[in-house]
Prior knowledge:
Radius of gyration: 19 Å
CATH topology: Hypothetical protein af1432
Largest sheet: none
Strand content: under 5%
CATH architecture: Orthogonal Bundle
Mean pLDDT: 94
Number of helices: 7
CATH superfamily: Hypothetical protein af1432
Bound molecules: fe (ii) ion
Amino acid sequence: MTEVTWTRMEEGTKADYERLAPLFEDHARGSLVDNLAGLLRMLQGPKLGYQVDRYEHSLQSATRALRAEERIDLVVGALLHDVADVFAPDNHSEAAAAMLAPYVDEQTHWVVKHHGIFQGYYYFHHLGGDRDARDRYRASPHFDACKHFCAEYDQNCFDPAYASEPLETFLPMMEEVFARPPQVAGVAGLDPTS
Ligand SMILES: [Fe+2]
Ligand SMILES: [Fe+2]
């Protein structure tokens, strides 16, 4: 493979970037599901005082969504809703949502982005906080969906006796979701409106 002759991006030509862009895209997309599965596996181990580790929590979340016959976007969203704990522990909801944004429907993105504050309904008050902090989002069309997500696919997913599906069950769903044309505003060639 021919490498570019320059070391500073400002020196690249249109022809350079037209050749480089698909190389990156093919590489990034080709390894995305494997990389995300690897991040999920990094949640294995520490239970942090709960009865299950965060890997089992994630599988349980996705399994409950799957068994409730939720759409594929939400099942994948459930599987990955806590994956950003690995690299963004203090804003894991927003980080996971940003990662999912180009590929999933708007409601799944919103639910993942806000699940942290909605999950707070179950424990913020025990720590001196406001369990109703989620109420600031009452006007959102996705409020009920996020409330439902936390009630049915998050706060209840700490059960060591629950028979979760293995990660392999969800890999084809991840492959399908992350094979979609990305919806990224403002990026030529990626933005369907450009
Ligand atoms: Fe979370
Ligand atoms: Fe969670």
